[in-house]
Design brief:
By secondary structure, the chain is mainly alpha-helical. It is 71% helix and 0% strand. One of its GO terms (cellular component) is COP9 signalosome.
């Protein structure tokens, strides 16, 4: 199948090759194809299309580009998902332009931009970013390691919601440098895994999945070790609850692994 970069090709003519692509996509959704350019998605389709926020948007974008009979409805669902679940203004504008270009070519009504959402979202982005950066600066100045990690983690989640995948991945990597437990390592690896899936970078996703599994195995092993020691001694362990984990070196090795 020929590759169609986002924003470059909105829809392709229903040639034999294109029709086969549409049929495969619709079979994946368990739907029947229709020649109507603006075929609406019913409730059954919605429940099958919406997976998680960014992955659902990516799948709908694919249908919008390659399956003309449902392109307009797919783009409309993308716009709805963006407004409800993200702060990705640039993707909203890109999707709106793709929808209207196709609608104009088919003499169908155009959609207008939701300026209220755009303006309010931009204000919220600026306010949230300033607050998160201030928290990070405060924790860094006071050398609060756990606070630094949580601040980086919150900042990464913010960048992901805005759609800045590169900044989000860089910040999550910074957060991993300040993880002190296997739980933190697993949590951040899962966050990076979701980010890699958002970007459809499956090689990177596989790497983060392995790291998350390793961190979870370490955490489980630590809990089993503590439980065994408690059972052997017959009493509560004398080790302080905030003392270093006995597998700290293994955790650090996991965090340093790329």
């Amino acid at each position: 199948m020929q590759s169609h970069p986002r924003g470059k090709t909105i829809a392709i003519p229903l040639s034999r090759h294109s029709r086969q692509a549409c049929h495969r996509a619709l079979m994946w959704l368990n739907l029947q194809p229709s020649p109507v350019p603006a075929q609406p998605f019913n409730s059954r389709t919605r429940s099958q299309v919406f997976f998680t926020c960014r992955q659902a948007i990516n799948r709908l974008w694919f249908l919008g580009q390659l399956c003309s009979p449902i392109s307009l409805s797919a783009y409309e669902l993308v716009l709805e998902a963006i407004v409800q679940s993200t702060w990705d203004i640039s993707l909203y504008k890109e999707t709106l332009a793709a929808h209207n270009k196709l609608a104009l070519a088919n003499n169908l009504p155009l959609l207008t931009a939701n300026k209220d959402w755009i303006n309010s979202t931009q204000d919220e982005i600026n306010h949230t970013l300033a607050r998160l950066e201030n928290n990070l600066k405060h924790n860094t100045t006071n050398c609060i390691k756990d606070g630094i990690r949580s601040s980086y983690q919150a900042l990464g989640a913010h960048y992901r919601k805005v759609g800045d995948v590169g900044s989000a991945h860089r910040v999550f990597s910074k957060a991993r440098e300040h993880a002190t437990t296997a739980l933190h390592a697993a949590e951040l690896s899962l966050a990076s895994l979701n980010l890699a899936l958002d970007a459809e970078n499956f090689k990177l996703a596989q790497s983060h999945a392995a790291k998350a599994q390793g961190a979870l195995d370490t955490l489980i092993g630590t809990l089993e070790l503590k439980a065994a020691k408690t059972k052997t001694s017959g009493s509560t362990s004398t080790v302080g609850i905030d003392s270093r984990d006995p597998t700290e070196k293994d955790i650090q090795r996991l965090l340093d692994y790329e």
